[in-house]
Design a protein that fits this description.
The structure is a homodimer of 144-residue chains. Chain A has helices at residues 3-16, 23-34, 41-52, 57-69, 111-123; strands spanning 39-40, 73-76, 81-84, 94-99, 105-108, 126-128, 132-139. Chain A has 144 residues and is of the alpha+beta class. The first copy, chain A, has two domains: 3-84, Orthogonal Bundle (Arc Repressor Mutant, subunit A), CATH 1.10.10; 94-143, 2-Layer Sandwich (Dna Ligase, domain 1), CATH 3.30.1490.190. A three-stranded antiparallel sheet of chain A has the order 1-3-2. Chain A has a three-stranded mixed sheet with strand order 5-4-7, with no helix packed on it. In chain A, strand 2 (73-76) and strand 3 (81-84) form a beta hairpin. In chain A, helix 2 (23-34) crosses helix 4 and helix 3 (41-52) crosses helix 4. The longest helix of chain A is centred in the N-terminal third of the chain and has 14 residues, at 3-16. The first copy, chain A, starts with a helix and ends in a 5-residue tail after the last strand. The model of chain A has no long low-confidence stretch (mean pLDDT 94). Chain A binds chain B through residues 77-78, 95, 97, 99-100, 106, 108-110, 112-117, 119-121, 123-129, 131, 133-140, 143, and chain B through 77-78, 95, 97, 99-100, 106, 108-110, 112-117, 119-121, 123-129, 131, 133-140, 143. The complex binds zinc ion (4 copies). Residues 74, 85, 87, 92, 94, 107 of chain A line the site of one zinc ion (ZN). One zinc ion is lined by residues 74, 85, 87, 92, 94, 107 of chain B. Chain A binds a DNA duplex (30 and 30 nucleotides) through helix 4.
DNA sequence: TGGCGAATGTTACTGTATAACATCGCGACG
DNA sequence: CGTCGCGATGTTATACAGTAACATTCGCCA
């Protein structure tokens, strides 16, 4: 899916969910899309300032929070960052693989594998919510 | 295992690994042990200041980093915090369950369940390192 | 047109983490 | 005994991350 299609789909997605991808939110989403991999809030803020002169942290945090809420981005706790989700339409829990060497990030589907974790949690009398797991390791290129 | 035994075991553990649980590191570990559940670095810093007057962030961060390195603590990224590991002797990957309501934390053993995640990562040409997963949900008490 | 609620702007602050450099303490070695 | 080296700790300053609180604007609807 190219960037334009993505943004259009994202807008429709928000619409369906009863909220609006405003100009600002869209702009922030575009800025995140321009990077590959994880982006930090203050990087987005800097980019935003380049485009519109002034901008303060709450502006970008509010937009990022919104986008995460809508499932367009995932937050990556281990890196204090955000990644674009390219299958926000389907209901899923995210599993994000972060290469320790090059920092590259990929999201994989993990529904099945999570079953095992749910079992373990059940055994501990704990009800899991939706997860956003970040796993670290080595990507193909860096494994050599 | 009571606190004294724990500290003694921790010291031996470090010794075996070729490094030393110095007085400062031991003091920080004790401070973490005094809390149940997740502790934040700046909480430890405040406690440390109460005990020895002055202390700056690097002092406590260095000690915490050391303890994590030795496997005595796990870092909980999602909360910017740390928890004591009470089975640091055995080789394990941690899975930490955090209740979204009361904030209570428990670590469970998860070796088996991780097999599924390793399979998924393999399929994505990714070699997992040791993991420190944080899963959120509701604990027994808060599920009602 | 006026009023309401959501979104955004603005200021100021709290919390989290690290860089860089100074100093200390202690064992190895001549 | 010095003194060299090195790991641990102290100190200062700053970078990075996130939020509270309040002001203002904007778009929609009565
Ligand atoms: Zn996703
Ligand atoms: Zn890599
Ligand atoms: Zn553990
Ligand atoms: Zn609970």
């Amino acid at each position: 899916m190219n960037r334009t299609d993505y943004l259009q789909a994202a807008e429709a997605h928000c619409e369906r969910r009863g909220c609006k991808l405003t100009a600002l939110r869209r702009q922030v989403l575009e800025l995140v899309l321009r990077h590959q991999g994880v982006v930090k809030a203050y990087q987005v803020l800097a980019d935003l300032q380049k485009e519109r002169g002034v901008a303060a942290p709450p502006t970008v945090y509010r937009a990022l929070d919104f986008l995460v809420e809508q499932g367009l981005l995932h937050r990556v706790d281990a890196l204090n960052g955000f990644v674009v989700c390219d299958h926000f339409e389907c209901q899923h829990e995210s599993m994000i693989l972060v290469c320790e060497t090059c920092g590259k990030v990929q999201e994989v589907d993990v529904m099945a594998a999570l079953a095992g974790l749910h079992d373990v949690a059940d055994a501990a009398d704990f009800t899991l919510s939706h997860q956003n797991l970040t796993l670290t390791g080595l990507c193909k290129a860096c494994r050599i």
